[in-house]
Amino acid sequence: MKICVTGGAGFIGSEFVRLILGTHPDDSVVVLDKLTYAGNLENLSSVRDDARFEFVHGDIADVALVDGIAGRVDAIVNFAAESHVDRSLEAPGAFIQTDVYGTFVLMEAARHHGHTRFLHVSTDEVYGQVRTGSSVEGDRFEPRSPYSASKAAAELLIQSYVVSYGFPALVTRGSNTYGPYQFPEKIIPLFITNALDGRELPVYGDGTAVRDYMYVTDHARGIDVVLRQGEPGQAYNLGFGGEVSGNEVANRIVELTGCSAGLIKRVADRAGHDMRYSLDSSRAKALGWAPQYDFAAGMEKTVAWYRENRAWWEPLKADDFWQFYERNYREAPGQAPAAAPADLAPVRP
Ligand code: NAD
Ligand code: TYD
After folding, report:
1. What is the spatial distance between Cα 336 and Cα 276, in angstroms, rounded to a whole number?
2. Which domains does the chain have, with CATH numbers?
């Protein structure tokens, strides 16, 4: 199979490319990537010289470019997206353009060339926060951030193509993913790299929001299984099945890096913070997929990788990174020492 992997220079996409080229000797890969702040050719350095690998620098919303690539591959696997919730709160436009319109452009090209498989990488965030129980694939979408709304909008468009045109789309809804090569803005790589530099670990709100963290190789393998064995027209949840709070992430990183627990800092909560995601992944497991790394094992590998690969992440934490950081993080209400009003000043004897 010749596969176009969009967003293949990003975190999960690059792991998927390594997996395909490493385990499917008859497959070849064309990566289409715009190289936004989150895209990095270094992520693909281990496959650069493989004759079955090709890189195209471009935008999934570029109709002519995408149609040309679709004409010479068998399938598209769409990882390309703006992917960070906090950035979507500040500037949603790019999320609509890439995550929604870009997906439409890819589907039109796949349809034009009669592809028999199209895999769209989506997220558990389309279900919105789930207070109790675990989401199954038929649950309704209740996205609450511009990021999750963009991903849900793309999925609705995909569903309409399945119904209207018999479009052979497969969708994966993965949970929060972590591991090597993740841009240091999501909680785990941000906290690890900050800890290694002796900087603060900014926990939103009271730190009780939980996520179902999944190690990146497990996520990539799940996508590969669904691509080959999934039923077109269906969606598949991919989650580890655990629940880890922001406080637990911070504490684990303190333990593994040996930094001071005093670096943990509560900051103002994220607007519309989803307090819990939880996936029932039985449908994907019935295809033979199972995650292999629990949080303890995955975090040990991840911290070791960031420790050993400072040359990869240090240049990413440049001026524009810190400018976003400054705009994004605010003191927790009540944390800043308030000046005592004059009439409430303690009366001294
Ligand atoms: P990432 O931000 O690390 O990488 C995104 C990649 O897409 C980058 O290489 C970027 O350059 C590229 N890109 C962005 N806009 C593009 C465009 N218009 N045209 C071409 N390329 C473009 O993202 P990630 O964390 O690897 O996530 C990959 C996919 O998985 C996304 O669709 C995301 O919604 C989904 N997902 C991520 C997680 C997670 O925890 N990271 C969990 C579930 C689902
Ligand atoms: P994040 O890694 O941004 O993933 P998502 O919001 O897409 O699930 O956030 C994961 C959890 O960590 C979420 O509950 C918000 C919290 N968080 C912090 O407490 N501090 C941070 O600096 C970040 C980025 C996230």
Report:
1. 28
2. 2-178+215-238 (3.40.50.720)
Residue nearest to atom 4 of ligand 2 (CA): 186
Atom 20 in ligand 2: which residue has the minimum CA distance? 203
Given the residues 15, 33, 86, 147, select the one marked as catalytic: 147
Q: Would you say residue 167 has pLDDT above 70?
A: yes
pLDDT at 150 over 90: yes
% of the chain at pLDDT higher than 70: 96
First to last CA, the chain: 84
Q: What is the dihedral of CA 190, 194, 199, 203, to 10 degrees?
A: 30
Q: Is the CB of 75 under 6 A from ligand 2?
A: no
Q: Rounded to whole angstroms, how far apart are CA atoms 207 and 36?
A: 30
Q: What is the pLDDT of residues 55-87, one digit of tens each?
A: 999 999 999 999 999 999 999 999 999 999 999
Q: State how far the Cα of 189 lies from the Cα of 256, in Å rounded to an integer.
A: 13
